[in-house]
Amino acid sequence: MKTLVAYFSYSGKTMACALAIANELKADVREIRQKKEYKGFSVYIFGGRDSLQGRTVELVDPNFNLDGYDTIVLASPVWGFSAAAPIASFARGCDLSGKKAVILLTMDGTPGKAVEKLSKIIVEKGGAVAGDVVVNRSRKSDEEVVKEAVDKVVKLIKGS
Ligand SMILES: Cc1cc2nc3c(=O)[nH]c(=O)nc-3n(C[C@H](O)[C@H](O)[C@H](O)COP(=O)(O)O)c2cc1C
């Protein structure tokens, strides 16, 4: 069984979780990056809007081959009550036939319909959602956030 941890992170919190999960699972890891990154305050306007409205954004190296992976962890912050546009765009560009996907979201308020919206994309692309983990960072240290994410995601993957 080979796992890929694909993550998008703007301010590093999701990245810390994704790297720790990959390390624990001895999984491959891939950062999803946008061609035109959101900068400064525009992230709140355009990043939030693109995510909420389900817009597809252009990615660096979008044609990533998932052959050989049977499980994909899709890790992202919640933006605009949705998974961030870059990770949703990545999922839309993937062939997930026969693959299991685990969703990891970090946020500090409310996730809205983020899990449901990303799950719908995964299923449309042929994948099966093996589970989701939503970590609320509020009132937690960075270490607690990473530990919660690793414990829950690893348990889901090893138990599925
Ligand atoms: C543009 C934008 C929109 C956000 N929207 C939400 C939201 O709808 N709900 C929420 O709980 N947190 C929201 N957040 C907070 C992030 O989800 C949270 O800080 C996340 O853990 C950051 O992850 P990162 O460091 O990997 O980028 C938003 C942050 C940004 C920058």
Write structural notes for this entry.
This protein has helices at 13-25, 42-52, 85-92, 114-124, 142-159; strands spanning 3-7, 28-31, 71-79, 82-83, 100-107, 128-136. It contains 5 helices and 6 strands, in the order E-H-E-H-E-E-H-E-H-E-H. The chain is of the alpha/beta class and 160 residues long. Helix 1 (13-25) packs across helix 5. The radius of gyration is 14 Å and the shape is globular. The chain has a single domain, classed as Rossmann fold (3-Layer(aba) Sandwich), CATH 3.40.50. Strands 1, 2, 3, 4, 5 and 6 form a 6-stranded mixed sheet that branches. Bound molecules: flavin mononucleotide (FMN).
Features:
160 residues, alpha/beta, Rossmann fold, 6-stranded mixed β-sheet, 5 helices, 23% strand, binds flavin mononucleotide
CATH architecture: 3-Layer(aba) Sandwich
How large, in whole angstroms, is the Cα Rg? 14 Å
Helix-strand string: EHEHEEHEHEH
Q: What is CATH's topology name?
A: Rossmann fold
What's this entry about, in short?
With 160 residues, this protein is of the alpha/beta class. It has helices at 13-25, 42-52, 85-92, 114-124, 142-159; strands at residues 3-7, 28-31, 71-79, 82-83, 100-107, 128-136. α4 (114-124) links the parallel β5 (100-107) and β6 (128-136).
Helix/strand layout:
Layout: E1 3-7, H1 13-25, E2 28-31, H2 42-52, E3 71-79, E4 82-83, H3 85-92, E5 100-107, H4 114-124, E6 128-136, H5 142-159
Parallel strand pairs: 1-2, 1-3, 3-5, 5-6
Antiparallel strand pairs: 3-4
Helix pairs in contact: 1-5
The structure holds flavin mononucleotide.
Flavin mononucleotide is lined by residues 9-15, 43-44, 47-48, 77-81, 106-112, 137.
